[in-house]
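Repro:
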Amino acid sequence: MLPFLISALRAIVEMLGLALLGLAAMAVLAGSQRQANPIYRLFELITRAPRRLVAAILPAGTPAVVSGVLCFVILFCLWVGLALWRLGLG
């Protein structure tokens, strides 16, 4: 049961990481019109909670790009850590 839970959590973390990458790509592609793009708004909705958590630990006034990159790095490290934990169980 534990390996399944780890795999499910890893899938959620992977989805959040890919949504962050999609958010960054859409921000570059759509430019200043990104808020009108429904796909950008979907990625923004999906990644809102982890981005807010990271922004809460950073000093006030930190640019959104920095918090987004740090959020991705944290999610990537969590994803790798869960993979290693899953391999250690098996």
